[in-house]
Each structure stands twice: as C-alpha cells, then as structure tokens.
Amino acid sequence: MAAPYLSPRARELLAEAGAGWYDSTGNMRVRLDRPGLFVERRGADRDPYSDAKDRRLRSLRGRGAARVIRSLLDDRGPIGVRELAARAEVGAATGSRVLELLVREDLIERSGEGAVVAVRKRSLVHRWTQDYRLTTTNNAVPVLAPRGIDRVLRDLADYRRPYALTGAAALRAHLPPDAVAVAPLALLAVFVDDAVAAQQELKLRPADRGSNVLLIEPFDQVVYRESTVRDRLRHVSPGQTAADLLTDPGRSPEEGRQLMDFLATKDKEWAH
Predict the structure, then answer these.
(1) How many CB atoms lie within 10 A of CB 235?
(2) Could you read off the pLDDT of 1-36 as tens digits, one per residue?
(3) CB within 8 A of 42, min separation 6: which ones?
(4) Where does the source fall among the domains of life (predicted)?
(5) Which residue pairs, CB below 8 angstroms and at least 24 apart, start in 255-263?
(6) 227 in Cβ contact with 234 (< 8 Å)
C-alpha cells in the first residue's frame, strides 16, 4: 500500500494482514518469500500533511483522553457515551471526540446507537503510549533508598499519604502468585502526590545517578483509579501498569507484554 502518510496504527493493521507499505515520510515495509527479502524503515509517526481546518482529535495526550482510555481499559462494555463520560469524569463532548479518534484507528467498535461494544485493549494501550510516557507525562524524581527497595516497601505499608506502586512492582501484584516476572525488581516506581514529602518521610536521598526509586507526581489523579491493595501495599490498575511498563526503559516493555499476555487469559479484549 502506498499513501502520503500511514499512521502507526495503520501500519500495525497492514502488518497483521501481511501487507507491505510505503509513505512519503519514509515509512516502508517490503517482505518477499521468493527471493527472501525483508526491508523495514521508519519515517514519521505524526501526519505532516494534516489540514489545519480539520478539527478532529488526533492526539491522546492530556487528562480527558487519559480518563476515557483508563475507563475503557478498566471496565467491560457495552457502555454508552454519556455513561462512559460519567465514569471517566469528563464532559460528554470530550468523550465523543476521544471515541471518534479510537473508531478511526480501529481500536474500538460501536453499535448503531453509539455504545462501545468492543475494545482492543492491547492495541489501545500501545496507541496511548504514543502520547503518554511514565517519566515525561508525569513529574518523575529519581531518588536513592540507601537501605534498599525492600525497606521502602515495608515503610510504604504504613505510609499515610496517597500513593500507588506502578511498573515492575505492580506487575508482580497483578500476576498470579506462582508466576515469575521476566526481570528482577531493580527500580521501584511509585506515584505520590508530593515527592518532597515522600522523600523525607521514607528517608530517601536525592540521586541523579544510581537511583533505585522513582517518586512520580501524577499528571492527573486518574492514575489512582481502580488501584488495588495486595500484601498491605497499593498498586495501580493493570491497564495503568501496562502503559507505564511499555514506556519505561530496559526490560520494562517485555514485562508489559508479560502482563498483557496474562490479562488476555481472563479478558479476551486484552488479546488484540
């Protein structure tokens, strides 16, 4: 397929269909069995030819989009626009614009009456993380726990301010007890409303290098939505955990895929 521009989601769907592509920004994929040939090149992930008069939503950046996405990931349909907006705590107009974008990118299905009847949750998380990243969308403060991560976890069990573990620590809370994470827990990521207060109360030290804890002030309170408690510790929801892992460095994306594979065993919408 050739076009002026193909979005990441369009390229993903073409790959699933076994088709190749080329666009004028440099995105290209050619695959042949005979002779054996595979060429893939990445160009732009944003449409440089968008019409300034086109007012349709094109980004999932921001609080409103995040709240709608989290509601779609956390809940099961079908659900109407107004009910979804109420659950997400956004205006009906915001909910409609976000859903319109998700329909265009084949991430949800809607009934004739407009209700959301199916969500491709795995693809939705991947699409969201094109615009959301754990350490840049939020305010992430690296610190050092001189007594180790395990001591911080023990102290968090008695921490009285709002918090929720995310990343690798939350992954372990959402996997079954007999499952083994793909990588050891080396960095503790925790959402807190006040990083300075958390650093003082948890006896952590500033650290530009060699940090083993990330104190993350959330861009919106939606990160705490549907958080769960396990072993006296609060963890963000599976959907938030997956998004945060996919945007973290190292082996975190691999952990995110491990989590989504497990979620797909309980909810088939996480399979796609």
Answers:
(1) 25
(2) 776 666 776 676 666 667 776 776 778 787 777 777
(3) 26, 27
(4) Bacteria
(5) 255/168, 255/171, 255/181, 255/182, 255/183, 256/125, 256/171, 258/171, 258/175, 258/181, 258/182, 259/171, 259/174, 259/175, 260/121, 260/122, 260/125, 262/174, 262/175, 262/176, 262/179, 263/121, 263/174, 263/238
(6) yes
- What residues form DSSP beta bridges with 180? none
| Beta bridge partners of residue 165, listed in sequence order | 190, 235
Ordered domains of the chain (ranges, CATH): 2-41 (no CATH), 63-128 (1.10.10.10), 134-271 (3.30.460)
Question: Under a CB-based contact definition with an 8 Å cutoff, are residues 43 and 27 in contact?
Answer: yes
What are the pLDDT digits (tens) for 107-159? 999 999 889 999 999 999 999 999 999 999 999 999 999 999 999 999 999 99
Cβ atoms 241, 191 nearer than 8 A: no
Q: Please answer whether residues 244 and 134 qualify as being in contact, where contact means their C-beta atoms are separated by less than 8 angstroms.
A: yes
Helices 81-88, 63-74: inter-axial angle, 10-degree rounding: 110
Per DSSP, 178 falls in state T
90: its two tokens: 């956004």
90: number of Cβ within 10 Å: 22
